[in-house]
Write a structure and sequence with these properties.
- The complex is a heterodimer of chains A (about 475) and B (about 475).
- Chain A is an alpha/beta fold.
- Chain A has 2 domains: about 10-40, no CATH class; about 45-225 and about 285-470, Alkaline Phosphatase, subunit A (3-Layer(aba) Sandwich).
- Helix content of chain A is about 35%, strand content about 15%.
- Chain A has helices at about 10-30, 70, 75-80, 90, 95-100, 150-160, 170-180, 235-255, 260-285, 290-295, 305-320, 335-360, 430-440, and strands at about 55-60, 115, 120-125, 140-145, 190, 215-220, 325-330, 370-375, 375-380, 395, 400-405, 415, 415-420, 425, 430, 450-455, 455-460.
- In chain A, strand 2 (about 115) and strand 3 (about 120-125) form a beta hairpin.
- In chain A, helix 8 (about 235-255) packs antiparallel against helix 9 (about 260-285) and helix 11 packs parallel to helix 12.
- The model of chain A is unreliable at about 1-5 and about 25-40 (pLDDT under 50).
- Chain B is mostly helical and about 475 residues long.
- Chain B has 3 domains: about 5-145; about 160-280, no CATH class; about 300-450, Leucine-rich repeat, LRR (right-handed beta-alpha superhelix).
- Helix content of chain B is about 45%, strand content about 5%.
- Chain B has helices at about 5-10, 10-15, 15-35, 45-65, 75-100, 105-135, 150, 165-180, 220-225, 245-255, 270-280, 290-295, 300-310, 335-340, 360-365, 385-390, 410-415, 430-440, 460-469; strands spanning about 310-315, 325-330, 350, 375, 400, 420-425, 445-450.
- The two termini of chain B are about 70 Å apart.
- The model of chain B has no long low-confidence stretch (mean pLDDT about 90).
- Classes of the chains: A alpha/beta (about 475), B mainly alpha (about 475).
- The interface of A and B includes residues 51, 353 and 357 of A.
């Protein structure tokens, strides 16, 4: 960030505003509560606006866009018309460049059998045998659509409500809106799958919100946060003294420049100090009993796997972390889908299902929301040649599936519907802005009131859009 | 047998004859005017066509007159159509006479006169179409700019707060305006019935009273709109009738007193009506959680501060909801802590006292919290006798007793006191068999315990199995 703004400690406009209202407010605040006047913003909060259903969120983000037609949105006609050219009339006006360039568009059937599961009768593919066992806990939205057909902008859009990087991500907004319940851990934590990372640090950005709301990525293995430990010879007491002195210097700096980022930086230093003990504690899963490993599957013992990250996500949630983001990459199956998607499913299926049920058996699902999904969907026709044992599917932003489970959403509900070819939405369209508005609503935040003023105007996660998806609220 | 109507219904059939014939004659007149004399070499042809048109027009007018006795149409638009039709015929007659009697008149003048007659024909036809198909029929599937604001059907009630929607003003009267008041208005009160304005709904008409508050069976309006579509007395007699949701709303409104300021109340609505309102009006009347239904005064801030200072996490539920979500953050609770908590007992709706060495003795000191909906007592290994304490909380929805010493008997007693409690009993003394028995006995309760997956056999891809075949 090359922000030279702090060379001018205070602008003309700001001066006029602060000298009249601001100083009064500060002196009032310090009269009421002397310490809070200069506290970090992580403990002050703007919300909740109304009683929340959920206090915490885990977003299991499948980067690359999993094929909804092979996993969730069952279309028997694809099986009947397997290999037949997709009728022109189905496609409509919006066609991606790659699809337009393709000479033939043969329809492909779902890779595995679909069955109705649980008491709800929700359809789910045999590719996800564990998720299939917990459908009565899930809310499946088959009618999500988005703006971009490219990964990066679509991911950015999912997380920030804008295709262009620079806006705060949802986790940052929620941290800003609700504050922290555990001062020893960051409020917004991301875990990546080792070897299949997906995602990027830009998807953890706090944008123009104060920097302490930024997502912190924890690494797998012995060193979850690099350089967190004291170097040899430096004791905790020495570190403490060092920070105290730095604090004094920075306070002087702050009185000169009045730059909020100085305070944010100090808050981060203090957080890092506390994390020296809190992070090793939460990341150490060796104390978990055997039957919990069994629940999450074999992989959960190996640090860095998705299953192990699911287990960590539960531990973070238990300690009051607001927003945990898990990434699993490698879902972009333009070709080789029959070989690739079973591997990915095996990676995430048991861990995702186990996480939801582990939260449930502990009572944590009462106020935790779990979200599962990617940035868009995939086409019902094959990209490239459809052979006897190989095919791929192209990007498809006009209809895809997201799952939710937990606080405030209906259980066992299949919401929205697509046409016979899974191509267009025919019932209950849900835009990404609507998903984001609904998530904020579940957290007790009004997406129209959660704003932040930056560069002269107030910004929202949902820009000027977003409608509550009332049909999925319990 | 109704001869009037029998012949009257030929009107839509016959009416297209004069229109077509007039236009044909007018086309010939244009050609004549432009000088194509080798095609139309005399005005006589044109006059002959106009005369045939006039004859068919006369037949159309007679059948139309007969049809107008049917009561099927709104009076005002019907009058417009009828009067204009007669004027058109008279003008056309005048055109013919003028051309016959004044052959020396300027050709342009004759042509202008015919043009007026043709325009009148078109206008009459349009009014007739509006009468049978409604004003928005033509543009219904056209581009937006063609439609008037009324046609767009922009409804703002889905933007309103569900509690502010007045059933009469925002739903019932717009339905009546849309479907009924063309015939049943203050000017033309067919059947002595006026459906404009709230008071008129309760005035005796030729038949019965349209609405009688609280009684569906004596509300003639409700009876008429719910008759089978081919019934002779069904209302409205033509065009689309009331939709299912509209009828359900009308029913709800009448049954609940038909007040002009009535609003929907979740308690009196059926599940179905709640779902319909959500689907068709985007209005959410689903039951609100207990903590959103009650109001409490703001508690003493200094009390909350002292709670926070002694290790509690204390949050208001919302900006204007002063119920409290309270949790103890440290690992050992003291009697002093409990006494502090007791001071705000009327505000606590969520309480988390997990893993803090809570024992049965503590519960005896605790004051019941009258708005408590959720309590988490998990990981207090010595806690066992919770039933007596919990039973004092009638609004309780969820109790977490994971990793406590609760026994089958206490759990059974607890469940007896509640209708649909959610309890968590993982890692307690209640065995799997006992849990299953309790699930049988208390089917409305939800007993959550250790979860494990069924064994999974990896399914095969249909692609691979097809290959193998």
């Amino acid at each position: 960030m090359n922000d030279h703004h702090h060379h001018h400690p205070i602008s003309r406009k700001e001066f006029l505003c602060k000298s009249t209202l601001g100083l009064g407010a500060i002196s009032l605040a310090s009269l009421i509560h002397p310490l809070s006047a200069f506290g970090g913003t992580l403990n002050s909060k703007v919300g909740p606006h109304f009683a929340p259903k959920a206090k915490r969120i885990i977003f299991l983000n499948m980067i690359g866009a999993p094929s909804q037609l092979d996993l969730f949105d069952y279309k028997p006609i694809l099986t009947k018309m397997h290999g037949v050219e997709l009728p022109e009339s189905v496609m409509g006006e919006r066609v991606t460049a790659t699809a337009a360039a393709q000479a033939t568009k043969p329809i492909v059937r779902p890779l595995y059998e679909f069955k109705q599961r649980g008491q709800s009768g929700m359809w789910m593919s045999d590719l996800l045998p564990y998720m299939a066992q917990i459908t009565d806990e899930l809310c499946m939205i088959n009618s999500v659509f988005t703006e971009s057909v490219q990964h990066e902008p679509a991911q950015m859009f999912t997380h920030t409500g804008s295709e262009i990087p620079g806006r705060p991500t949802m986790g940052a907004w929620i941290s800003y809106g609700l504050g922290s319940e555990n001062e020893n851990l960051p409020n917004y934590i991301a875990l990546m799958t080792k070897g299949n990372e997906g995602g990027s640090s830009r998807l953890l950005s706090s944008g123009f919100l104060p920097a302490e709301h930024q997502g912190v990525q924890l690494r797998s293995g012995k060193n979850p946060v690099l350089f967190l430990n004291n170097p040899p010879g430096v004791t905790e007491a020495i570190r403490r003294g060092q920070l105290d002195h730095l604090q004094k210097l920075q306070n002087q700096n702050y009185t000169t420049w009045e730059d909020e980022s100085i305070k944010a930086k100090m808050a981060q230093y203090e957080m890092a100090f506390r994390m020296q003990t809190s992070v090793p504690e939460v990341m150490n899963i060796e104390g978990e009993p055997e039957h919990i490993y069994e629940l999450y599957g074999e992989d959960s013992k190996k640090p860095g796997t998705f299953a192990s990250n699911c287990l960590l996500a539960r531990r973070l949630i238990e300690r009051g972390v607001r927003y945990v983001q898990l990434y699993h990459g490698g879902w972009d199956h333009h070709s080789d889908l029959p070989k690739q998607i079973p591997k990915n499913c095996k990676d995430v299926d048991q861990g995702s299902a186990a996480l939801i049920m582990d939260l449930k058996q502990r009572g944590l699902l009462e106020d935790t929301l779990v979200i599962w999904g990617g940035e868009f969907g995939r086409t019902s026709f094959s990209q490239g040649q459809l052979t006897k044992d190989n095919f791929g599917r192209d990007h498809h932003p006009d209809a895809y599936t997201m799952l939710m489970a937990g606080a405030g959403v209906k259980k066992g509900l299949t919401f929205g519907a697509t046409d016979d070819f899974g191509y267009h939405i025919i019932e209950n369209k849900v835009h990404v802005h609507d998903i984001n508005a609904t998530i904020l609503h579940l957290m007790g935040l009004d997406h129209e009131k959660l704003t932040y003023k930056y560069q002269g105007r107030r910004f929202r996660l949902t820009d000027v859009h977003g409608k509550l998806v009332k049909g999925i609220l319990s | 047998m109704d001869w009037n109507l029998f012949f009257g219904r030929f009107h839509p059939l016959i009416v297209h004859l004069p229109i077509g014939i007039f236009i044909l004659g007018y086309g010939f007149e244009i050609l004549f005017q432009l000088g194509y004399r080798n095609i139309v070499n005399s005005r006589k042809v044109i006059l002959l066509i106009y005369s045939i048109g006039l004859l068919s027009g006369f037949m159309a007018a007679v059948t139309g007159w007969l049809l107008s006795f049917s009561n099927d149409y709104g009076i005002e638009p019907l009058n417009d159509h009828r009067n204009l039709g007669i004027v058109t015929l008279l003008v056309m007659l005048a055109v013919i006479i003028y051309q016959l009697k004044a052959p020396e008149a300027k050709a342009r003048l004759k042509f202008g006169f015919s043009t007026i007659a043709i325009l009148l024909t078109a206008l009459t036809g349009h009014f007739g179409g509006t009468l049978t198909h409604g004003a928005s029929y033509l543009v219904e599937y056209g581009p937006e700019f063609l439609k008037s604001e009324d046609d767009l059907g922009v409804s703002v009630i889905n933007e309103m707060h569900p509690d502010s929607v007045h059933i009469y003003t925002h739903i019932i009267q717009p339905i009546l305006d849309n479907k009924c008041t063309t015939c049943h208005n203050a000017k033309h009160n067919r059947g002595g019935l006026i459906l404009e304005g709230y008071n008129n709904l309760f005035q005796e008409s030729d038949h019965h009273r349209p609405i009688s508050a609280g009684n569906l069976h004596t509300s003639e309006l409700y009876t008429r709109v719910t008759l089978p579509v081919n019934h002779e007395k069904v209302m409205p007699p033509s065009g689309a009738g009331l939709g299912y949701t509209e009828i359900q709303i009308l029913k709800y409104w009448i049954e609940n007193g038909a007040d002009s300021l009535a609003v929907f109340h979740t308690e009196t609505m059926t599940q179905e009506l709640i779902a319909l309102m959500n689907r068709d009006y985007d209005l959410d009347y689903s039951p609100k959680p207990y903590y959103d239904r009650i109001n409490v005064e703001k508690p003493d801030e200094s009390l909350l501060e002292s709670l926070r200072n002694s290790g509690f996490r204390v949050n208001y539920l919302g900006k204007t909801n002063y119920l409290l979500d309270v949790g103890f953050k440290n690992d050992a609770l003291s009697i002093e802590n409990i006494e502090l908590l007791n001071k705000i007992s009327d505000h606590v709706t969520i309480l988390q006292l997990m893993n803090c060495n809570l024992t049965d003795d503590f519960l005896e000191v605790m004051v019941p919290m009258k708005h408590l909906t959720r309590i988490d007592l998990s990981k207090n290994k010595q806690l066992g006798h919770v039933t007596a304490f919990l039973a004092k909380h009638q609004h309780l929805e969820s109790v977490n007793l994971n990793e406590t010493s609760i026994t089958h008997n206490s759990l059974q007693n607890l469940l007896r006191g509640f209708d649909d409690l959610r309890v968590y009993v993982r890692k307690t003394k209640v065995t799997q068999e006992e849990q299953d028995a309790l699930r049988q006995a208390f089917s409305r309760a939800e007993i959550v315990s250790e979860f494990s997956f069924e064994k999974v056999e990896q399914a095969k891809s249909v692609f691979r199995s097809e290959l193998e075949n």
